[in-house]
Specification:
This protein is α+β, with helices and mostly antiparallel strands. The chain is built from five helices and seven strands, in the order E-E-H-H-H-E-E-E-H-E-E-H. It has three domains: 74 residues, no CATH class; 48 residues, no CATH class; 31 residues. The strands form three sheets. Strands 3-4-5 form a three-stranded antiparallel β-sheet.
């Protein structure tokens, strides 16, 4: 007869986190399963049962392992810490307009003829920016941005102006990917 282990609410780490979930990836499978906790309407044991039943439906014999994995996750995983880390990653993504770079090479504002600067963001893109001078011997062959011709100013320096061919290609790829996401596949219309 299987044993039932009742989890006490105070043993759940990160109980104050707005998002709690349990997940399981069966061995040899490329598909993982996840069940979110939607608040007070669902008991902790029911969360484990839901994951176990879901895994058992598609992988017979692995439901009990999934149940145990969910129970262990609820006891050991710090959801509040993971939630805070995810929010910090979102803030860094928003700040940099994408994934934060490890380093950025940009021309020096005060000495436009000679030097380039190496800007290194700290704290995964959210901390201060360290700026280092680069020896002109290493950057002498780099083309300098000319505002209005080949680059424009951004919050963090210069961004290259794409060629017309590149702009058309990006627009076409964006429209195609949006159509794929809507489930329309690719559709061509001739006028």
């Amino acid at each position: 007869m299987p044993q039932m282990i009742i989890l006490q609410g105070d043993r759940l780490k990160g109980r104050k986190s707005p998002v709690i979930w349990v997940e399981y990836l069966p061995e040899g499978s490329k598909i993982g399963y996840m069940v979110p906790w939607l608040g007070d309407g669902l008991e902790i044991e029911e969360l484990c049962d839901l994951l176990g039943e879901l895994v058992e439906k598609y992988h017979p014999g692995l439901g009990q392992k999934a149940f145990e994995a969910a129970r262990e996750q609820l006891e050991t995983r710090d959801y509040a810490e993971q939630w805070a880390k995810m929010k910090a990653q979102q803030a860094a993504y928003k700040r940099w307009g994408g994934h934060p770079p490890a380093a950025v090479l940009q021309p020096d504002e005060t000495d436009p003829k000679a030097a380039w600067n190496l800007v290194v963001p700290q704290n995964e893109g959210l901390g201060e920016l360290l700026v280092y001078k680069v020896d002109p011997r290493f950057t002498k062959d780099l083309p300098r941005p000319e505002e209005g011709k080949n680059a424009y100013r951004d919050n963090f320096g210069f961004k290259a102006i794409p060629s017309k061919q590149e702009a058309v290609r990006r627009r076409w790829n964006r429209a195609r990917s949006q159509a794929l996401f809507r489930g329309m596949k690719e559709r061509r219309v001739e006028w």
